[in-house]
Each structure stands twice: as C-alpha cells, then as structure tokens.
Write a structure and sequence with these properties.
- With 294 residues, this protein is an alpha+beta fold.
- It has two domains: 95 residues, no CATH class; 161 residues, 3-Layer(aba) Sandwich (Aminopeptidase), CATH 3.40.630.30.
- The protein is built from nine helices and 15 strands.
- The strands form three sheets. A seven-stranded mixed beta sheet has the order 9-10-11-12-13-8-14, with helices on both faces. Strands 3-4-6-15-7 form a five-stranded mixed beta sheet, with helices on one face.
- The longest helix is centred in the first third of the chain and has 18 residues.
- The mean pLDDT is 90.
Length: 294
C-alpha cells in the first residue's frame, strides 16, 4: 500500500504461488485483473519497485501483474489474452434480437430441449462442482478444491452465486458467477460433453444474460480467453466487445518468460485426461496449486 500525507494513494495485491521448484508472485492468480491501482504515477512506481524488491527477497521465478489496460511499465507484456464484455439489454426480446441470426437460432434450438435453469448459492455447490470437475478432466486440467468455491460463496455472500442447468433431473451444465458494481462475471462455466448436442452452453449463457438483466447489471463479462481459441470464438458470437489484457512481467536477470518455473499446463494436460476419474478427483486440488498460468 502506498500512502501520501496519511492518505492511501495506491494498492497492489500480491499472492505467493508455490511451484514444484520455487514460486512466483502474482496479482491476482485466479482473476483476470487485480494489478496496481494508484492515484498518480509516483505511487504506481513506488508500488512497482516494492513488488520487485519483494520478488527478489523471495527469490521468485517472476513477478506477474495483471492489468486491464497498458500502464506504460518498462516490463515484458503479454497481450495474447482478452476479456469479452457485453452490455446488458434489460428486455429479453430486444437482447435476443440483437444477436446475429446464427447465434439467435442456436439459442432458440437450445430452448426446445426441455432444459431448466436454477440459481442459488451453497445449496447448488455440489451439482456445480461435479459438472466442473468432470469438464476439467475432459479438458486435461486439474480442478480446484470444492472448498475453494465454498469459501468464495461464504466470503462474498450475495455477490457470488451459481447457476445449474438440468434436463430430466440430471445436471448437465453449470456456472459460478461473481457480481461487482455494475458487472456480472462468469469466471467458471462447464458442461458435460455427452450432452453437447443439446447446446447446453447456449442455454446456460442465455439464462446468465437474462439473470444479469433481472438483477440490474449493466455489463456481462464472459471472462478471459486466448485470442483465436474455441472459448474466444464462443464468447464473441454473442456480440461481446473484446478488451485486450496487459499482463506485465518482471523476471530475474538471465531468465525469460518461456523459462518460468512450475509445471507446464501442456505437460499436465497430456496425461491428465487419460487418468481414471477417482485419481484426478483426488489429486487435482493438490496439483493445481503447482501449475503455472492459472
């Protein structure tokens, strides 16, 4: 925290992420953003210098600052990730009409398969987690612990909630949402692959957009994705506005971003999807903390 004449002029949250070899500092590892917030350039520079000093003392592999815009820092910057935001239309018919013809038809098709959506909090956590955990294994990625999501719901009661999509009593899609000010964000959403023909993702996100309108949010944030990826294409079809993210990195002398420590996500993914579910369910929450780039 930076202060001037007893008044807070800037803050920078940092999380120590332990890896197999050492660790790194990030702001913030689970979120799209959370970097330096300062009233002026001098406070921003002071926070940056302090963060670098802390990274050196911790012998961190690197320091990662996640920003939503260019701060003009003299650091290596990644811009390959974007977030996608969509202005929320209060009227459902107007919102549907705003979609392009292809997306509108996909939404209507999803509405014809008898799926139902429920919104709630901790009472829906088990259903959300089961869908999320299965989807993460199919993607080749370890899953966070159930307690991680439970703690978010406990700490941000009323701002964090869950949507579960069911068909015939079976949970086939789910999303974890967090609202702040006038924006509703969906950092985690999943569906079961065996039901993809029903377009559960289209149904899910249509319900989320209507929920955002009903709760008075002005913006819907689809969350981050890599440019050109499948998730990126899915989000952009809704007419979302692409916002480039600026993730800044300080690295010790002689190292590069490609040499960042930690287990490579690609390495984990290659073997993870072939492991039996009981193994991934048990090991996932313990391994994910050592995986870089979460």
């Amino acid at each position: 925290m930076a202060e001037e004449d007893g008044t807070v002029s800037g803050v920078l949250p940092l999380i120590w992420q332990k890896t197999m070899l050492s660790g790194y500092l990030s702001s913030m590892p689970h979120l799209t953003t959370g970097g330096i917030v300062a009233d002026n350039d001098s406070s921003e520079q002071l926070l940056l210098e302090s963060a670098i000093d802390m990274a050196k003392k911790c012998k961190a592999s690197y320091l990662e600052l996640r920003h939503t815009h260019d701060h003009g820092l003299c650091l290596f910057t990644r811009t390959d990730k974007v977030t996608a935001v969509l202005p929320v239309e209060p009227d459902a018919d107007a919102m549907l009409h705003r979609l392009d013809k292809k997306t509108r038809n996909l939404v209507r098709k999803s509405l014809s398969h008898g799926m139902k959506a429920d919104f709630g909090e901790s009472e829906l956590l088990e259903e959300f987690y089961n869908v999320y955990r299965q989807n993460m294994r199919d993607l080749g990625s370890p899953s966070y612990a159930r307690a991680f999501f439970a703690e978010i719901l406990r700490q941000f009661r009323g701002a964090a909630f869950i949507c579960v999509v069911r068909r015939g009593g079976e949970s086939i899609a789910a999303a974890f949402l967090i609202g702040f000010n006038n924006t509703l964000e969906v950092p985690w959403a999943s569906s079961k692959r065996e039901h993809l023909a029903l377009k559960p993702n289209m149904f899910l996100y249509w319900q989320l957009l209507q929920c955002a309108a009903d709760r008075g949010y002005k913006w819907f944030d689809f969350g981050r994705s890599s440019v050109g990826s499948g998730t990126y294409q899915f989000k952009m079809q809704w007419g979302a506005q692409e916002k480039m993210l600026h993730w800044n990195y300080w690295l010790p002398c002689g190292s590069s971003v490609s040499q960042r420590s930690g287990v490579s996500r690609k390495l984990v993914s290659r073997i993870w999807r072939y492991l039996p579910p009981p193994v991934t369910n048990c090991l996932g929450p313990h391994l994910i903390r050592y995986v870089s780039g979460i």
